[in-house]
Design a protein that fits this description.
alpha/beta
Length: about 160
């Protein structure tokens, strides 16, 4: 993971897990990635599932992923090809579920007010910076252990590779 370019989908504050992945499907949908991806953000943005492309990023306000601890709120985004979620802040359990499932999560509060859906940003993991037009915004560098988990595609893949 070094420097990469991505298209933005922008959302607001307090986007909860029931909106990221509709709660009504929690126990009725299999773990088939294509099926999970079809329902990603459908109650918040019906255009997301059909419009998302591999490598897109979500930029959001405060408290992204609050609510229940169900993993589908992460795995549906991974299945949709989302590269990262960048937000002002994250719900603690969502943040950890994202890392465990190989979804890059970055807290960068200043980006939210500068970006719009459809914009293009570059994420430079080595320098811990996000580039948008003539702005270079810093974020806290991820610990090496977390980066290894993300590079492996999640905690299970990482642990399987350790043996």
């Amino acid at each position: 993971m070094t420097r990469s370019k991505h298209r933005v989908w922008k959302y607001g504050d307090n986007v909860n897990t029931d909106v990221i992945f509709p709660g009504k499907f929690t126990y009725t949908i299999s773990h088939d990635p294509a099926e999970l991806a079809r329902h990603a953000l459908e109650d918040l943005d019906p255009s997301f599932a059909n419009g998302a492309r591999a490598g897109d990023v979500i930029v959001a306000g405060r408290n992204w992923g609050n609510g229940s601890s169900r993993e589908q709120a992460v795995t549906c985004l991974v299945a949709a090809g989302v590269h990262a979620v960048i937000a002002k802040s994250f719900a603690r359990i969502y943040y950890r579920n994202a890392i465990n499932n190989g979804l890059l999560v970055i807290a960068c509060p200043q980006l939210v007010d500068l970006v719009e859906s459809g914009d293009s940003i570059e994420i430079d993991m080595e320098a811990a910076r996000i580039h948008l037009n003539n702005h270079a915004l810093s974020f806290s560098s991820l610990p090496e252990q977390v980066r290894r988990i993300l590079d492996a595609g999640g905690i299970i893949a990482y642990l399987q590779g350790q043996g």
